[in-house]
Amino acid sequence: MPLEDKMKILEKLEEGVSNTDVGRLFGVNESTVRTIKKNEKAIRASMESVSPLCSKVLCIPRDVNIEKMETELTFWVEDQTIGGRPLTLKAICSQAKRIYKQLVETTGNGNPDKFHASKGWFEKFRNRYSLRNSRLMGEEEPLNAQSAPKYSKQLQRLIRARGYVPQQVFNAEEMSLFWKCMPSRTFREKDKNPESLEEAKDRISLIFCANAAGDKMIKPLLLYKDPNPSCLLEKDKNRLPVFWRSHPKVSLTAALFLDWFHNCFIHQARSYLIEKNLEFRVLLILDRGPNHPDSLFFAHPNVDIVFLPLEGTSYLQPLDQGIIEAFRRYYTKHMFDHFADCIEKNPCLTLKETWQQYNIADALVVIKEAMDDIKPAALNKAWWKLWDDVVNDYACFPRANEEVAKIVESAKRMDFKFLDIEEGEINELLKFQALAITERESVSINTEEDKSPEPEVKMNLRKLNAVLRQASDLIDAAIDMDPFLDRSLAFKKDFNKLLYTYKEVQKNLQNKAKELKKEKDTNEEEVVWMKKMDTESESEGESESESESKSESESHKEEQVERRKEDKKPPEEDPGPSSSGTETLTISEESAKAINAELDFWNLTLELNLERVDVPELKEENPEAVPSK
């Protein structure tokens, strides 16, 4: 009987229900009820030590490191499947143990010997992550050296039928990079700070793309977890050496690849082919993956898409023929040189402090330097398996041992601890870099990315002036220091050529500053003029109000004069009979002279705008006809 039912029986007994009624209610014998009542303390203690009554499923927490290991192992299995590499039960279990051991060493929690990667675990792992269709050994054989030429001949036949030249055929491949990874003997192994350990495994994703001629490398797509890191706030992301994009999981999705295809690849390929006086027609060769959707076939009318076979991608992919490995070696060398240069400039810095100050902006500089080290002849030679007719020199590819030796020399410059470093440790570091697999997510094209508006970045004229002043001081110091004047003058000439771009920018910014100042002064003059006009309009309003009051008083006076004129007219007499039939009005000569004098006086007063005028009294024969003032 479940503990929950026993607890219900005990509750009924506490309510005073008899043993018989409780047994009849729950369908058990009366003796069973008595036994449960007898063991009441043990039953309640058991209930306190288990999950709550409301929980339907009892969840046992798993080891966190095992969950992380299984997630990384899933990506590894998927990459192996897409790359056409055979998988066995032993290989998967060995990789699982290796990843679990690394996680335990990183976090410091758990025991690496606790996880055995048994067959039972593998079956549960396969069912848990729906890996039933993963190709294991015994299924279809991958493409090898005997079967690969068949596909290569088919591709070459397609290239000849479409009339493509090596400059028009491109290959793109994605990779991941631990951009702050250091050798195992450094502080990374001793530091127990989880943030530092996670920072050491900070990952970026890149897409490399180059043509078969080897003379054109498209600006790579770079995925970072932060869309606007603080070290790039003052940088224009459209003018970086990479096509900058962000993703929280640093995962290359179909939407991000299409964004790079339309906004970067198309523009640069068109400009390159126009410069070469070639028609804008491109053949782009890709591997078959969820981040390369079928809609690419219709993405652009001048671009043809060809997918490599799933079972032979790693064997035929041109950029997988040593180009990506060479880039990792170049990146590691330039990163070590950057650390050594920083310590030489500031001897007070330790290697750990220099590593902590190394940010993504510095990594972009190192990435650009590593890309510049990849020679066009090496890019051309990488097509020897897929299109051997286009290769010009088979002996141009850099030797890995020579590059590793250069990395060792750069590592010795960083710190005295690396004076006895060997090539084996560098090879181990490069192998660890190769484990930086690219996460692939099967998402729709309409995946929403972070489209928060980026702040507008402008050149600071004050900082630019300071830099150019320092450059001028450097030239003067070189001339004073060098005893050979011709050499110092040649240095000055070459240095000024390098500064020409920034001087042009300075001139443009100064012109803009003058225009802005002029506009500001004009606006200030307009503001002053508007204030002046406002004051004048106010004074004019007051004068207009006064003139209006004056005009009203003048009109009132004119009305009074007219009224007086009418009152001064003599009374009309009854008209007598006349031959002409017209009426006549007779006025005495004295009255006429008085009226004319009065009219002249009022005209004069109106012209002089007098406010008050005393009207003289008229001397008439009939004084009652003139009204008193």
Automatic annotation (TrEMBL):
Pfam families: CENP-B_N (PF04218), DDE_1 (PF03184), HTH_Tnp_Tc5 (PF03221). It comes from the Eukaryota. It comes from Neomonachus schauinslandi (Hawaiian monk seal). Residues 57-135 form the HTH CENPB-type domain. Residues 547-572 have a biased composition (Basic and acidic residues). Residues 536-546 have a biased composition (Acidic residues). The keyword Nucleotide-binding does not apply. GO terms for molecular function: DNA binding. The lineage of its organism: Eukaryota, Metazoa, Chordata, Craniata, Vertebrata. This is Tigger transposable element-derived protein 1-like. Keywords: Coiled coil, DNA-binding, Nucleus. The keyword Membrane does not apply. Residues 532-591 are annotated as: Disordered.
